[in-house]
Amino acid sequence: MSFYAFPPFSFSAILPNSANISFHTLPKPTSTRTQPAPGRTMSTPRKQHTFTTLHSFYATSGTVTIHSSSSDSPILVPTPSPLDPNDPLSWPPQKKRTAFLSICTFTFLTNFGIGGLTSAFYLISLEFEKSLPETSALLLWPILVLGLFNFFWVPLANYFGKRPVFVLSCGLLFASYIWGALAKSFESLLWSNIVAAFAGSSTEALGAAMVNDLFFVHERGGKMGVYMNFISGGNTVGPLVCGFVVTGLSWRWHKWIAAMLTGINFVTVVLMVPETRYHRVEVTGEGGQQVSESEDNGQEKGKVRGDGEQGQQREGIVAVPKKSWVQELSLWSGTPKDDTSLWKMFLRPLPMFAYPCVIYSFLGYAVSLVLTVAVNILNSFVLQAPPYSWSPTVNGLINIPGFIGNLLGSFAGGWLVDKFCDWRSRKNNGVFEPENRLYLCILPLLITGAGCVLFGYGVGRTLHWTSLFFGYGMVSFALTAVPTITMAYVSDCLLPVNSDALMLVNGSKNIVAFGFLYGIVPWVEEVGYVECFGTQAGIYVAIIAIGMAVLIPFGARIRHAQAKWRIIL
């Protein structure tokens, strides 16, 4: 990206009789050729809709300095704008947490209301006289929709802003749960789940991208772990709650509970989640440290040199006024001011499939999701039928070890990885390398691989129920650990286009997971649990291990090479 592509600043606001002088753009050429100022070169007009490189606007490719020898405090990367209090990185901690947790809750309730019904699948199949494969469609088709419609919501959010997308989709989720609670037929219940998945798909990638909007590099692992725990928690806490609700009331009350909680969160999203989209251009300073230059809705601001208070005039640059709460409620934050069009937003992510980090993240996430959801789909047909013959309430208790596995996975993939990266960075003269995150993929590789085999043997050999519980807990470890690590890695490598890259990860993993899970029931019926889950364990271990073997030693070279590929539209 040309240095002259940043927005102009006019001195006329300060010196009324002065010429309109720009820091970052030259006057538009007339019929007479304008000569550049001394020390400058003429900028060439950018061609519309041409491919460019990641390196042109992200020079470091993820390698940044986060520690200095003169201070124990981490260097803030990206650097927040000192002149703009509306920069999400500059928001007060409480405001950040409220907005972030509201979107996390939205994500949780999507899976709570849809995936939570798995404990009632056996009873639903009896009520509507459906077979096991037919009943499993209540979860399988929503999984596909959750993936596909990432490709719808994310471009809209990149073009119009995240806030209107979150408000619209959260309201639609609320309405779809009311529909599900009132459904009188299996088909109506199925379509209510599909519409709920359409609404909830907006947060699959955008929620993860919001981590990068609100938090710094040294915080992202922990916050991504929290986000992933909310996603997976809906699939474990939901069936646990549903087991008790089904026994005491009915499965419809599970939908009513989901609708009430979603309605409360809808109000919270409307009132307390401002727009987090913020155009931030990173320029590399001394030592590889990044300095922000930003633009937002045509307001004038620029790079600041020196220290001082926000709201003061500095080197002829006036700080941006802080938005009021009422202004932050607006659903309109403008559209991109460059040559970007909406159709370009839809096409831009597709070439990013060429990035190895994206491929590794979506494959690792997909196979982790497959293992967990396979247990979710099948466990009620195992535990509520002879020889176990458990009630839905007791069956739901299998989600306790699943929830514990999620918590431990998010802790390992988030906080523990952050601490490990901090330690590695200090040993590397304060320089952070994104590949440091991948070392701890060894934990889910070992734990989940063993857990998958344990669950398959437990069911296949009708072992004691504790083998099934421990197996499921170990399988659930990967559902948070793997995506927390790999999605943070993708964000580190592709920060300026992270929402597009994360959309590919989230959308693709659901499509791949749907393909696997659509055939899981016939597969189990044909070969049995031992061979089915043993094969899945082998595929999982191979994907995680091969990715580690390639990206840990060669990832830095790959990152810097791929940054020069002309695939950014």
UniProtKB/TrEMBL annotation:
Residue ranges annotated as transmembrane are: 99-124, 136-153, 165-182, 194-215, 227-250, 256-273, 353-378, 398-417, 438-457, 469-490, 502-521, 533-556
One Pfam assignment: MFS_1
Please give the Gene3D superfamilies that the UniProt record associates with this protein. MFS general substrate transporter like domains (1.20.1250.20)
Does Membrane appear among the keywords?
Answer: yes
Is Membrane set as a keyword in this record?
Answer: yes
Where does the record place the region Disordered?
25-46, 284-314
Annotated keywords: Membrane, Transmembrane, Transmembrane helix
Checking SUPFAM superfamilies in the record gives:
MFS general substrate transporter
* Topological category with respect to the lipid bilayer: Multi-pass membrane protein
Q: Which residues form the Major facilitator superfamily (MFS) profile domain?
A: 99-569
Q: Where in the cell is it found?
A: Membrane
Q: Where is the composition biased (Basic and acidic residues)?
A: 298-308
Matching InterPro entries, A to Z?
MFS (IPR011701), MFS_dom (IPR020846), MFS_trans_sf (IPR036259)
What domain of life?
Answer: Eukaryota
Q: What is this protein called?
A: Major facilitator superfamily (MFS) profile domain-containing protein
What is the originating organism of this protein?
A: Podospora pseudocomata
